[in-house]
Amino acid sequence: MNNEKSVFKCGAENGLIFGLYLSAIFFTCIYGNSSFMISFLGLVMFLAVPLVIFAFMRRYHVTYPETSTFSNLWTLGTATYLFGSLICGIVTYIWLQYITPDFIVNQAKMALATYEQIPEFKNHEFTSMLRKAISDKMLPSPIMIVFQLIWATLTAGVVTSLILAPLARIGKNNKQQQ
Prior knowledge:
mainly alpha
């Protein structure tokens, strides 16, 4: 009897964990202004993303070596990124839309204040465009930000998984050890 999980089921299960991990990174980015340690933690977590994906791929290779092909591992990594980014997207949307609805406007105003303090940027075109976007309420909505994050994460995930898939196959697996 074959108890092997499909690569998509493993990707969905890994995606749940990865989505929570990405959500934690989101919160460290949101609250990184308040503390150096939070900001540093967020940076370390962000840089560790490929290691987390590698661990998922390697576990799949060790558990199911007979079907652990390059394409299956690449699909696993991509599916993990897809499901994880969807979960993080839901968390991000709820946070930006309902919990801190003024976050985007406040960040834009804070950026504008920073740019206006720099003499080279005080009358720069970018500063005037940002000022106009704030006054005309043309800043991106939470759903627009979430979709951009999902696309960026998925694109990075496809490329990262492409690089990590052959590396996850290096070394011994359970069948070779027996």
